[in-house]
Amino acid sequence: MLYNLLVPLTEQFSFFNLFRYLTFRTGGAVATAMIISFWLGPTIIDWLRSKQSNGQPIREDGPEGHFAKRGTPTMGGFLILLALAASTLLWADLANRYVWCVLFVTVGFGIVGFADDYLKLSRMNSKGLPARLKLLGQIAIAVAATLWIISITRDPLDTQLAFPFFKTFMLDLGWFFVPFGVLVMVGASNAVNLTDGLDGLAIVPVMIAAGVFALIAYLAGNAVFANYLQIHHVPGTGELAVFCGALVGASLGFLWFNAPPAMVFMGDTGSLSVGGALGAISVVTKHEFVLAIVGGLFVLEAVSVIVQVASFKLTGKRVFRMAPLHHHFEKKGWKEPTIVIRFWIIAAVLALAGLATLKLR
């Protein structure tokens, strides 16, 4: 909004030229989202606590240490969504359709997550929306978003799939790009959701991934940098750096309240929305496979669940003591802070590996 209001006035006030620069507006988005989180966080948490007398329902078959968290309110993802959306609308170019598309996915997945959290609280058990209905809602939003992305992106990039380490090779998926885009968004959303099981575990890897994709979006949207790095130039994607900056700031603000011991859980309201956002940004910037590297921790958590379920159904035996993977280490006796910090380290290393793909071509 500031870009649209102030840039036309640069002839009268040269200071407003600052708002032309993505780097300045991205930094502003980070700071604004943090300030909103710190300012509104205590009020929102108190309100959530007043409405949730027993807090988030705890799984009866989960690790024993989790019962000590009984009474902690959930739906803290609302704080992330509020700070993220407000900061993005304030600092981004509102004429950019990619921004609106990614916001659509973020808010849409957040609504699905909210419905799931609400049903868990109203029924006072860990089961919310029926799995099929939840997945159907995510797929519908992702289909609409993928079609929107195709309509915005210039030909021939609109339905093409890029690969890390290859300079020019791209695979044209045609209409198969739609189910592929849906798979990326829904998969990323649910992978983050599965990772969100310990205080602070999911939000820091989300913040790291958002920082990486802020850089990727900036580079892919800049013809000079894209040509130098030999990555595919997608005009207009640079504006998503502002969105990613807002996500970094909102994540930092939420971490203040989610750090062990958590004052609030993000719930599906937060995990589904931020995961879907990362998936949508990767589709827009043509870096879907890079997301699988940068968000490798989320992939590991999701794969651990798939392997566990498949093994039990086929052989009657479990590969892990409990899935997702972080619960396995809890069952082995690792302390929660140890698991969280070590997983943060893994996320940081994978982010560096993902960034390396920009140059290794």
Describe the structure.
The protein has 361 residues and is mainly α. Helix content is 65%, strand content 2%. It contains 14 helices and two strands. It has helices at residues 2-6, 22-51, 77-91, 97-123, 131-152, 177-195, 203-220, 223-229, 240-258, 267-285, 288-294, 296-315, 325-331, 336-356, and strands at 160-162, 170-172.
Present the secondary structure layout.
Layout: H1 2-6, H2 22-51, H3 77-91, H4 97-123, H5 131-152, E1 160-162, E2 170-172, H6 177-195, H7 203-220, H8 223-229, H9 240-258, H10 267-285, H11 288-294, H12 296-315, H13 325-331, H14 336-356
Antiparallel strand pairs: 1-2
Helix pairs in contact: 2-3, 2-9, 3-4, 3-9, 3-10, 4-5, 4-10, 5-6, 5-10, 6-10, 6-12, 7-9, 7-10, 7-14, 10-11, 11-12, 11-14
Mean pLDDT figure: 92
Percent strand equals: under 5%
Coarse shape: globular
**Helical content class:** 55-70%
How many structural units, i.e. domains? 1
Order of helices and strands: HHHHHEEHHHHHHHHH
Number of helices: 14
Radius of gyration: 20 Å
* Strand line-up across the major sheet: 1-2
Separation of the first and last Cα atoms: 37 Å
Structural class: mainly alpha
Quaternary status? single chain
Biggest β-sheet description: 2 strands, antiparallel
Number of strands: 2
Q: Which residues form runs of ≥5 with pLDDT under 50?
A: none
